[in-house]
Amino acid sequence: MTNTKGYRRGTRYLFSRKFRHHGPLPSSVYMRVYRRGDIVDIKGDGGVQKGMPHKSYHGRTGRVYNVTPHAVGIIVNKRVGNRIIPKRINVRIEHVKPSKCREDFLRRVKENDVKRRDAKERNVFVQLKRQPAQPRAGHLVKTKNNPVVTVHPLPLIFRESHQMFKTKATLICFHQNQLAGIVRSDP
């Protein structure tokens, strides 16, 4: 059977609702305020068929350029061939939520402003750029009350036993004189 050419083909699981999240949407979805310039995430909700985005825009992030009573216009970058085209799509607000992609950046901007202001008052240099995780600092381990212990694997002793199963060879594994397990070989 060939692939169908439907607009929503292949979206059986993509647009399905999460487990125990069926039913009407909460009122908070409709109470959100969107303004031009807001960055939003597009996530198609299978509970509302009107104004759904195409599956190629599901999970994308875009910027609001138009606001209507029940929907928003979003500019989304879409890769077509070897180029990226800014597409303008209209999506109902049930399929949109505010993006959190700039929260960390805005938090760092505020922290850096405070650091810069404090450094200027104290007339010192402060590093505002993010630094990668540094190696752990060196330290000294004292052996006065901490004796050195050599760690090595304990030997395993394999013995063949024909008393329990006379038809099958059985290996019994002894680990420090304790029975650890029985491994049977196939006939």
From TrEMBL:
InterPro entries membership: Ribosomal_eL21, Ribosomal_eL21_CS, Ribosomal_eL21_sf, Translation_prot_SH3-like_sf
GO MF: structural constituent of ribosome
UniProt keyword list: Ribonucleoprotein, Ribosomal protein
PROSITE patterns cross-referenced by the UniProt entry: RIBOSOMAL_L21E
Highest taxon of the lineage: Eukaryota
Gene3D superfamilies in UniProt: 6.10.250.3260, Ribosomal protein L21
GO biological-process terms attached to the record: translation
A GO CC annotation given for this chain: ribonucleoprotein complex
SUPFAM superfamilies listed in its UniProt record: Translation proteins SH3-like domain
Signal peptide region: none
Family that this chain belongs to: Belongs to the eukaryotic ribosomal protein eL21 family.
The protein, known as: Large ribosomal subunit protein eL21
